[in-house]
Design brief:
By secondary structure, the chain is of the alpha+beta class. It is built from two helices and five strands. The protein has one domain. Helices cover 21% and strands 32% of the residues. A five-stranded antiparallel β-sheet has the order 1-3-4-5-2, with helices on one face. A hairpin with a 4-residue loop joins strand 3 and strand 4.
Length: 90
């Protein structure tokens, strides 16, 4: 599935989770688009070819989780979770 990176994420909210590693996220989606350091250390902001927007991010961790971690998936519709999972499964 094709996607665009570093898109506007305003208006997205938590839709679900995906358990995977930081290295797998980087392999599939490239380097994180944003590094925060307060409540979010790393975030990917994506728009899929069907228009679905998704964010993948950690939440309230001291540092970026490197092993398997339950990453948060935000989006503007429930299909954001499906799109992220489809990409990671490919």
């Amino acid at each position: 599935m094709k996607f665009e990176k570093n898109v506007e994420a305003t208006g997205t909210s938590l839709m679900g989770y995906v358990t995977t590693s930081y290295s797998r996220l980087c392999e599939v989606f490239g380097a994180p688009c944003r590094f925060y350091g307060d409540k979010v250390n790393a975030e990917w902001s994506l728009r899929f070819e069907d228009g679905t927007r998704a964010t993948v991010y950690d939440w309230k961790e001291d540092e970026i989780p490197m092993g398997n971690y339950q990453w948060h998936i935000g989006g503007d519709r429930r299909s954001a979770v499906d799109r992220v999972q489809e990409c990671l499964a490919a």
